[in-house]
Design a protein that fits this description.
Distance between the termini: 72 Å
Helix content: 10-25%
Strand content: 35-45%
Radius of gyration: 20 Å
Number of helices: 1
Number of domains: 1
Order of helices and strands: HEEEEEEEEE
């Protein structure tokens, strides 16, 4: 009976270790989630975003830091989940600049080239298909 109690206690400690480890990992970098508001339509690879507020995030900064997800403000619609390239913030670029735009035709929404997470020296460059 004593051996059974020790086994149950040991399994409880192991389970607690898994739970504590998972919760620590999930909160590892809260700065990788940002609300961005646009006053005109913009585009990302394969999608056009109307004016409004969107969530840009790296959903798994530890195992998949190259993946960026863009959702509606309430997380109900996923507009984009895509691989990106890490790029270094150019010298002299203000740290409060959150987006770099690419060139667009006059009749098309301006494409977002790079998302610069706040206070980070590395941005996430979106990969567009070549034409």
């Amino acid at each position: 009976m004593l051996a059974c109690r020790k086994l149950v206690a040991a399994l409880g400690v192991v389970a607690l270790g898994f739970v504590m480890g998972a919760s620590t990992r999930a909160d590892s970098n809260p700065n990788k989630t940002m609300y961005l508001t646009f006053n005109r339509p913009v585009s990302l690879p394969g999608v056009m975003l109307g004016s409004g507020t969107y969530i840009f995030e790296v959903p798994d900064p530890i195992d998949a830091a190259d993946v960026v997800r863009v959702t509606s403000r309430d997380h109900s619609i996923v507009y984009l989940t895509a691989f990106t390239r890490a790029v270094t913030r150019p010298a002299g670029m203000p740290h409060d600049q959150l987006i770099s735009f690419g060139e667009a035709r006059p009749d098309a929404p301006q494409p977002i080239a790079v998302w610069w997470p706040q206070n980070e020296s590395t941005g996430r460059q979106f990969i567009y298909p070549s034409h």
